Amino acid sequence: MSDTPLDIQLKTLPNSPGVYQYFDANGTIIYVGKAKNLKKRVSSYFTKNHDYGKTRVLVKKIADIKHIVVETETDALLLENNLIKKHQPRYNVMLKDDKSYPWICIKKERFPRVFSTRRVFKGGGEYFGPYTSGKTVHTLLDLIKGLYPLRTCNYDLAQSKIDAGKYKVCLEYHLGNCKGACEGNESEEEYNENIKAIRQILKGNFKDSLQQFKKQMKQFAEDMLFEEAQKIKEKIEVLENYQARSTIVNPKISNVDVFSIMSDETYGYVNFLQLSYGSIIRSHTLEIKKKLEETDKELLELAITEIRQRFHSNSKEIYVPFEVDLGETVKVTIPKLGDKKHILDLSLRNAKYYRMERFKQDKIVDPDRHANRIMAQMKGDLRLSEEPRHIECFDNSNIQGTNPVAACVVFKNGKPSKKDYRHFNIKTVEGPDDFASMEEVVHRRYKRLLEEAQPLPQLIIIDGGKGQLSSALKSLDLLGLRGKIAIIGIAKRLEELFYPDDPIPLYLDKKSETLKIIQQLRNEAHRFGIEHHRNKRSKNALNTELETIPGIGEKTVVELLRHFKSAKRVANAKLDELEVVVGNSRAEKVYNYYHIEK
């Protein structure tokens, strides 16, 4: 039975924190949820037997799934709250009321108060949060009140009213929790210095305050007041885990549209985040097929116009990764750092995930479609007469001129075929000569394939510039294969592609899938060659150091190296030390070799 569209979506969900939205057949949001791992959480709805009838009905009505990827589980919790408040999904019972997560407010007034609130009023003061844990809010306020005496009354402390003696100090003053600004016992300048310090704590810069807490905890422990010390310890732990900022909700960013783009050779993926009063209320990714090799700028301008019309957005400001031309009615901002840059990065992350998921879905629906598309792309990009279904890449490896070897890796339909990889020990070349080595291995490889009537590749890639390419061509000439197999060389430094008898190299687009496959081939050939080179060099090192000693075999060499760790330590070992490991007779042979015969 073939996979349904929902099955395919479930298989390609990311293992990241985020928020998922379920839609019914009419395209209406019926449920919003948050997850630490989107793939596991969403899949659980379709694999478990649900006890609640409401959940079973919900699952039956799901026709489509959308998700938004975020950085942390806390961000997912906050975004879930935003979306439920905005869309009021039928199957979300919690969080539908007008309450929200708590904030801490520094009131905009003379001698500002600091308090928790669930409502944010524009111009009412500075808001920090929101916080997903009430415990964090209480701990922060307790910390602030313990460090800085602040007023809690709601008097209008205008200077004229204080001078007129309109207010009297309250119990908080006598308890030492307030310095009595209402009677002029504290200057505004002194009070505002405390507010500055509190602002730093709320931004997450509470290093000094934590040190004070730790001193208090230590003092309580020394005084044997362990319960008090434990309370302080709990506050320290909460503060150390406190997340100072959230990308999802930020009262400084209001009524803004955020756009980012991720593109490849054939498609552009534009993500749109809509912010209202500092909260993300919508995410949508638009896929645009390229027709005339449009630039990212052209695609983004097209997408912004279409998306804003579709969602009836009238925001006067947009955030984008680069300059776009949208007329004079919209303010275009290109964030470089801070909260605005974070929200743009979040948009780009969602565009990237969307592109990855589409590729995965294509592979599930039509496994051959991806390979066919890449093969057709490579044929066009590299000016080949046929699709390169079978590619072979050669690389030499002769570090410091010793033990020269070469590697041949094979890709079939754009994927490594490791069973067809081959190593070559250079036989006819003396010393480090890359050109002659390349000539030898190419000749040996295709001479054997011809003798055994094996299929030949459609494309040969030589890791090197014009010199190595010319050497490989000599071998193809000798075998009568020139013109029958396409061959190119790739130079490491600028990723230049060289063709036979063409002095001008080809440069592919850095985003090109063709270039990525060529790079993957080159890197795989390099890795495979280096691995063989190291193995050969290690074996030769053992041979020359120990196995050349008359009367000493491989088993003895292994025993000596296992005990002494290196050939140098074996050479410097005393006779009695060697006897303990390999016995008298063999110990004498090794000792005499290093101390008498030399």
Automatic annotation (TrEMBL):
Family: Belongs to the UvrC family.
Species classification: Bacteria, Pseudomonadati, Bacteroidota, Flavobacteriia, Flavobacteriales
GO MF term (any one): excinuclease ABC activity
Subcellular compartments: Cytoplasm
A Gene Ontology BP annotation from the UniProt entry: nucleotide-excision repair
GO cellular component terms attached to this protein's record: cytoplasm; excinuclease repair complex
Pfam families on file: GIY-YIG, HHH_5, UvrC_RNaseH, UvrC_RNaseH_dom
Principal place of residence: cytoplasm
Boundaries of every GIY-YIG domain copy: 15-93
Keyword field: Cytoplasm, DNA damage, DNA excision, DNA repair, Excision nuclease, SOS response
Record-given protein name: UvrABC system protein C
Subunit organization: Interacts with UvrB in an incision complex.
UvrC family homology region profile domain boundaries: 262-476
Function of the molecule: The UvrABC repair system catalyzes the recognition and processing of DNA lesions. UvrC both incises the 5' and 3' sides of the lesion. The N-terminal half is responsible for the 3' incision and the C-terminal half is responsible for the 5' incision.
Gene name as annotated: uvrC
Location of the UVR domain: 207-242
